[in-house]
Amino acid sequence: MLDLHCHILPEVDDGAASLAEALAMARFCVQDGITHITATPHCHRRCRLLRNDVLPHVARLNEELAKAAVPLVILPGSEIQVTDVAEYRRDFEAGLYCHLGDGRAYTLLEFSWKAEMYPPDAPELAAWLCARGMTPIVAHPERHHYFADDPARLAALVAEGAWLQITVDSLLGNHGRDPATSAERLLMAYPEAVLATDAHNLGRCSGLSVGFTWVTERFGVERAEDLRSRANRVLAALHCP
Ligand SMILES: [Fe+2]
Q1: Domains in the chain, start-ordered, CATH in brackets?
Q2: Contact 70/22 with Cβ under 8 angstroms?
Q3: Which are the contacts of 142, defined by CB distance < 8 A and separation ≥ 6?
Q4: pTM above 0.90, yes or no
Q5: What spacing in Å lies between the alpha carbon of 160 and ligand 1's midpoint?
Q6: Angle at Cα 210 formed by Cα 202 and Cα 220, nearest 5°?
Q7: Residue 240: what pLDDT?
Q8: CA dihedral over 39, 44, 46, 48, signed as positive or negative
Q9: For residue 179, what pLDDT is reported?
Q10: What is the DSSP letter of 201?
Q11: Per-residue confidence at 180, pLDDT binned at 50, 70, 90?
Q12: Ligand 1 is a single-atom ion; what residues have CB below 5 A from it?
């Protein structure tokens, strides 16, 4: 079972604050049934973690997990914030970004929390990525009020091939009422969805199984299985050791 959005790398962004915390998060994830995590530290203006920054941190954490006998594989990745599509394309083509699994099949995109920073040409970017064989996965759209205020924005992204990553903590109400409502609506509206934890620390580390249980109770086993199988498709496309 893959968690494709997790800030488990220690001391790199606002995620795990220490190696001890990263190892504790890892042990929790293993107990939850997670076998693989794509570490997705932030890549935005204030915390710009590029491929060359991410890869050594991932190697180091895998070494520490092996030493501690924690059976979890950390794969590279990042959560890339897009505010300027031309800039994103330039850095993409220069190979600066770390996509999921350091591959070319899936990438995790985030949009700004500020509506005025949402790029109007985001659907064109989704189409551009898909034309290059890469599926963009939009991080936690249920937490961005402007997607709820203007559902056409998200519909346009999905129409161009984007998937949506719903955060388990949103389903559980841990990000407030509006994200919980939006998360449920998005799961009803879009088959093109995956669940992830977006875990940042031990206090914000829900696991995935509670999310699948939530979906099973609300929407039935088939929907939960479809969400699982999408995550498995992502995992199968990554370069796993
Ligand atoms: Fe995140």
Answers
A1: 2-237 (3.20.20.140)
A2: no
A3: 148, 166, 167, 170, 179, 180, 182, 183, 186
A4: yes
A5: 23
A6: 160
A7: 63
A8: positive
A9: 97
A10: B
A11: very high
A12: 79, 198
